[in-house]
């Protein structure tokens, strides 16, 4: 089993759980696993311990979550992706990274792949949310972002709510660029996902028009695949590694 440790990356205090070869001292392909909203790097801890050998396994706390700075939500997929960019260049000799995104982490890693195409070898999209027409806002969400109600929410929920209030226009803007993704994409999605409905798969297949896309469907599975279907997630990551080597 890999040993897990925490490190701080970049000038903005990005907190990262890491395992495998030292990402700075040893040249190895990074596998970067990005959580949804709310969430934290700890959601990937099992994969850090049981992930493939010989690669640098990295799981950041996205800004606004876990131990990363800032403590408030960082709005915008491009801004979020920008904070993760230093993970792609920890060692100039590292091969391009494999990016794994769960739930709302999917659009973040897609944006990162678009902004840094030469540093990204493949995407693994696990129960991700991309179709803006499948996003449903609760009527109380705008109220929860106003004082004094906002102060009553725990920080992860407060920041998650703020992200979700702006996600629909962000996804519409992202859709215009998805056709520029050229790296292989492995999609893992459950048919019983209520948070990110299975219709997101067809949406991605339409919009990732210039990428090689492989879909892995889990019948009857829900949204929280990194906890309920760990072996399937790990197999999807291994498939992405194989596609990089092909």
Automatic annotation (TrEMBL):
The AB hydrolase-1 domain extends over 31-236
Looking at the Swiss-Prot or TrEMBL record, what is one Pfam family this protein matches?
Answer: Abhydrolase_6
> Which Gene Ontology cellular component annotation is one that this UniProt entry carries?
membrane
| Top-level division of the source organism's lineage | Bacteria
For this protein, the record's Gene3D superfamilies field holds: alpha/beta hydrolase
The name on file for this protein is: Pimeloyl-ACP methyl ester carboxylesterase
Native species of this protein? Nitrospirillum amazonense
């Amino acid at each position: 089993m890999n040993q897990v440790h925490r490190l701080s990356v970049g000038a903005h205090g990005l907190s990262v759980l890491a395992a495998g070869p030292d990402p700075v001292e040893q040249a190895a392909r990074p596998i970067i696993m990005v959580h949804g909203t709310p969430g934290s790097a700890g959601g990937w801890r099992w994969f850090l311990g049981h992930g493939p050998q010989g690669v640098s396994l990295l799981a950041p706390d996205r800004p606004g979550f876990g131990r990363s700075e800032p403590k408030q939500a960082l709005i915008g997929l491009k801004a979020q992706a920008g904070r993760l960019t230093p993970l792609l260049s920890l060692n100039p000799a590292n091969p391009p990274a494999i990016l794994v995104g769960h739930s709302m982490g999917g659009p973040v890693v897609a944006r990162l792949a678009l902004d840094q195409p030469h540093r990204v070898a493949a995407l693994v999209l696990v129960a991700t949310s991309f179709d803006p027409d499948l996003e449903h806002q609760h009527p109380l969400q705008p109220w929860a972002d106003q004082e004094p109600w906002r102060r009553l929410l725990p920080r992860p929920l407060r920041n998650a709510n703020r992200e979700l209030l702006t996600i629909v226009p962000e996804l519409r803007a992202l859709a215009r660029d998805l056709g520029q993704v050229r790296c292989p994409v492995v999609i893992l999605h459950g048919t019983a996902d209520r948070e990110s409905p299975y219709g997101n798969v067809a949406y991605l297949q339409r919009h990732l028009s210039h990428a090689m896309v492989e879909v892995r469907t889990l019948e009857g599975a829900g949204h929280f695949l990194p906890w309920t279907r760990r072996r399937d997630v790990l197999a999807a990551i291994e498939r992405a590694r194989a596609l990089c080597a092909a």
